[in-house]
TrEMBL record, chain A:
Transmembrane feature ranges: 20-42, 185-203
Domain of life: Bacteria
Localization in the cell: Cell inner membrane; Cell membrane
Membrane topology: Multi-pass membrane protein
ABC transmembrane type-1 domain residues: 18-206
UniProt main location, coarse: membrane
Protein name in the entry: Amino acid ABC transporter permease
Family: Belongs to the binding-protein-dependent transport system permease family. HisMQ subfamily.
Protein source organism: Kaistia terrae
From TrEMBL, chain B:
The protein's name: Amino acid ABC transporter permease
Transmembrane segments: 22-46, 147-172, 192-215
Pfam families: BPD_transp_1 (PF00528)
Upper classification of the organism: Bacteria, Pseudomonadati, Pseudomonadota, Alphaproteobacteria, Hyphomicrobiales
Main location: membrane
Record PANTHER family: L-CYSTINE TRANSPORT SYSTEM PERMEASE PROTEIN TCYL, MEMBRANE COMPONENT OF AMINO ACID ABC TRANSPORTER
CDD domains cross-referenced by the UniProt entry: TM_PBP2 (cd06261)
Localization, UniProt: Cell inner membrane; Cell membrane
Amino acid sequence: MFDTSLSWGDIVFLAQGAGMTLAVTAVSVIAGTILGIFCGVIRVQLGPYWSIPLTFVLDIFRSVPLLIQLVLANAFQSIAKLGWPPFTTSCVVLSLYTAAYCTEIVRGGIDAVPLTTRRAGRSLGLSWWQDMRFIVAPLATRVSLPSWIGLTLGVMKDSALVLWLGLIELLRASQILVTRLQEPLFILLICGAIYFLISFPIARLGGYLEKRWSPND
Amino acid sequence: MFKYSFQWNQALKALPQMLDGALVTMQIALLSMAIGLVVAIILTLFRLSGSRLLRGFAVAWVEIARNTPALFQIYMAHFGLGSFGIHLSPFTSLLAGIAFNNAGYLAENFRGALKAIPDTQARAGRSLGMTSLQAFRLIVVPQMLRIAFLPITNQMVWAILMTSLGVTVGMNTDLAGVTQALNARTFRTFEFFALAAVIYYLIAKVVTLAARLIASRLFRY
């Protein structure tokens, strides 16, 4: 079991795959978070009734399997002759997917800020923007950060699905090696270990922050 | 706008086939959920037990399930187990992968729910003459399931969405698999997958609604 034909070059290949996973995740999470904060603030400002269309659209991204979304987006970009490479398509789909979840997190965070606190700020003469920036943002971040970390890790794991569009990320890279070397268990274990090593410390950090920052400590 | 003629008729003609696929999807999701619940309860029991080995086993299961992609877990069941001479069909490996994932997430939810149940309850049961297993089964588990009801329904929706991953290991009877097979025959990717997306959306909504109805009946008191 321990004699393997895995060469140094193959490990570099796996590392490149992991790099691709991280790149897709980073782009999607950054874009998705910005969009999510934007949508979340709009949702809160509009109130539950007027934001129904927005909620409905975002809900679609959470109720349709990511794999189907990726295939659909890829088919759409070829129909519309957009000429996007798989990387762009994957990032767009994953960003929207992230944004849909991030909106809920942001909304929850803003809702967790007591209205009286905000009103106090406004009566001291803060503008809406100042209230958002100096009162809501710090308090809401405290509530939302642990779930945002969870979301980031979720997107990192879900980014494995972009292999369906032909992007060589970590799981696809190990699949290629499995096909070539015929050592499925060993290579998949390495692949799983890499995922675990990326995910576990950050998950722990999230858990620590959640405990540390829980509202009534 | 598009130089492409959409052929929705073709997709609609395949609707009965896809609905059959949706049934298989539901079947896998429900089975994986049932297995996941049972295993999660056992894992919770392991976590509570005094044995270091059992606790370590449960913690390892939960952390691996939560920190690796679901697709990786399905690959592990499909390709990885082949090294031990176990060759699972796409159906079984998909089921095994999702059940493994469900069990991990549910066990973590149960741990949170367990914190809300006072120790004194199990102890009261013990002093009434129950064995510790009886007290766990008759007093702790029902309350735990009730507190964790919302996370369980969320996990159910997740399980339905995860079944679509089966197509990557060659599953061709569930909704995603049927759609992919039709797509391979006709190359009408957008139409077929759009229809599949609508079906998935409806299934997810129906499950959420049903869960809400059940919850309103269960938690009347």
